[in-house]
Design a protein that fits this description.
By secondary structure, the protein is α+β, with helices and mostly antiparallel strands. About 55% of the residues lie in helices and about 25% in strands. The strands form 2 sheets. The chain has a 5-stranded mixed β-sheet, with no helix packed on it.
Length: about 280
Amino acid sequence: MPATARARCNVTHSRARADSRAHAGGMRVRLLLLALLGMLPWQIVNAATTVEVLETFPAGNSLRLAAGQNYSLRLHYETDTTTRLWVRPYLRGKPANAGSNPSLTYAAGSGEALGWFFLMEPGDAVDEIRIQGGDGSQGGTQVLLSIPVNIVAVPAGGAAPAQPQWVEDMRAAEAERRAQETNQAMQDSPGGAGIAFALMGVMLVLLVIAVAWPIRALRRWEGGWRIASMLPLGVIGFVVLRIVIGTAIDPTSHNLWPFEVAMAGLVSVGAMVLLSAMRWMQGVR
């Protein structure tokens, strides 16, 4: 190959290697920028809301808790955007068998919030409490604080311990704010008040039927049928008594009591339908 051709070839190869190195360098810079940008949302979300635990009741993070008894946390938060806060109990990385607080809406700024959870059955346990904040969606909710604990549920017995004043005060304030949010949501939603009124009417009619039908059967039926008609009334009575005793021990233990009564009413009506069908099939007048 002539010398001139070899020189041209070397120049071409040098330019190709230089272009390749420049391209690789540019790719590394772009990847680094993408990585940094990918980190920004996580940092912003976590910086937007911070939370700390001021105190708990019962005090401590290693204890035995009666099944159904609330473990309450007094939280201090700071946020630069509207957010919600949840206290979620976990066991070995999975949600524990427990009930926990719904969340109010907290405006930008700082303040205090009440979080709580309770274990369902004796033997249930919690080894981690995750305090989550955000809008409630999967992508818009983050774990703000993780607290290792050792809490195990034991059978309930004896009188419940007296609650400190901060629990009572924050619970009352929370109930008042929740009522305000519910009223505001009903006002903002077209027909919301009408739907709520209709739902309450249906629940009331259902409860009247669930009580009146067994009472009527108790007066008119005879023998074993009369005894059977007492069972639906027993279901409703048991649920109502459980709610009364539970709320006397812990006012937050039956926050959804209307739905509990409604479910008991459905069971009562269903049982009466079944008993009436059996009587009809056997030709009992």
